[in-house]
Design a protein that fits this description.
By secondary structure, this protein is an all-alpha fold. It folds into 4 domains: about 1-145, Serine Threonine Protein Phosphatase 5, Tetratricopeptide repeat; about 160-250, Serine Threonine Protein Phosphatase 5, Tetratricopeptide repeat, CATH 1.25.40; about 255-335; about 340-480, Cyclin-like (Cyclin A, domain 1, Orthogonal Bundle). It has 28 helices and no strands. It is elongated and about 85 Å long. It starts with a helix and ends with a helix. This is Tetratricopeptide repeat protein. InterPro entries: TPR-like_helical_dom_sf, TPR_rpt. Pfam families: TPR_16.
Amino acid sequence: MSNYTSEHHHNERIVQLFQDGQYLYHKGLKAYRERNLSRASKLIQRAIFLEPDNTGMLSQLAVIYTEMGFYQQSNELLDFILKNMNEKMTECHYFKANNYAHLGLFQEAYKAAETYLNEDPNGEFMTENMELLDLLDMGEESDHYSEYDQDDLILKQDQAKSFLENGQLQESIEMLEEIINDYPEFWSAYNNLALAYFYAGDIHKAKLTVMTVLEKNDGNLHALCNLLIFFHYERKDEQVRILSEQLSNIYPMLNEQRYKLGATFSLIGMYDLGYRWLKSLYRTGFEGDVTFYYWLACSAYFTDRIQFAERIWGKMEAEYPGHARIEPWKERLEKQPSLEERLAAFYVSGRKGEKDQLQAVLDSKMAKTEFEAQFVRLLLYGENKKTVISKDALFAYRTAKAIEEADCSVIEEDAMCFWIFHVIQQMRASGVQLRNPSGLAATIYYIWKTEQHERLTKTETAKLFNISSATLTKYERVLKEHL
């Protein structure tokens, strides 16, 4: 009995040790002194998860974020400390000023430095703060500088977000590109731009934008979540597994980060993890929007918390009576068609002369990408020079038309029609620049026919599409590499 008790207490001490935030925090500080910033941030995040009210840990993490180049995340932590924990931690204003300066938001940097000077004129960072103020002083030009730049950024960011939420993707893309040009380290604009590209059907540009963020701002949570979503929709299961495992070990401190992580996990079907973070927000009284309630209800329902899910849905309907979303459990039963399926259906409608239906697609408020809308316009009006059409939409249209003109019977097969647009979307997602729609059309046709065990030579196919056998061989190699 005594041996058991001794061993029990020994194990209990070990468990307490590894559950102790201070233990993790000091390990994080050791890693920080060794300049292993990535390890330091992860250890201190875990420490804060165990001691969420420890302002010293939070401020240390903010400092580490600054040194890692995560200026926005650092300022979010500093704002959280000032607003929710200790408004007298005046050094937070100085740290914020430095972060704003790095982001190129010089007016905000000046304001934060002035606040630090006014609230703590003899503070620990008095000398450094005065040097920063001197550096930021615009002299006689300060009146022109005033608050215009920051106000302009906020206005553009809000407008771009509104465009994105309302499906005005091209307008959102143009505004976000303008923001990035003016503020090249404003990472949230990059993340929103990646989503805008993705919703517009340009997965290649979406992924390039995310990778730009991760190259310059390693570990950016929103970028990693966006990348996980892209992998999910591309059905790249191994990449999804690796990245989701990486994200499952992250302990975000900020509400916005928990929201993003929870919604992302719920979207890809990892409902346990999604529910974990969204419910943690709900417990704190987080005032969510329609999307927050949607994913909380969704993750609750699909983790067998049926009554809670229905209660959350009722709460959302009471707070947002005009919302257009249906219950996620019903939405799963009424599965929405994929983009490939929609494009195939539009093409069939065009062949049947169902112009009223195609016009209704353009006039409706249903969610659609700009690529999709342009493709429908081509089906309605043909290659009219007055209509602004992207190269992608025109290439897709000409590819399908080439197959129809070569063999109109084959495009009447639903499976073949869907596969045409599946191939087109895969090529767009891979970023491969194809310039010959007849070459792609011939290759799609040839692969389809040979898969159906029909006897068809490359020479016969090339002649049918008026291309060379060499072009067909080249395009076949490209398709097999990326499909």
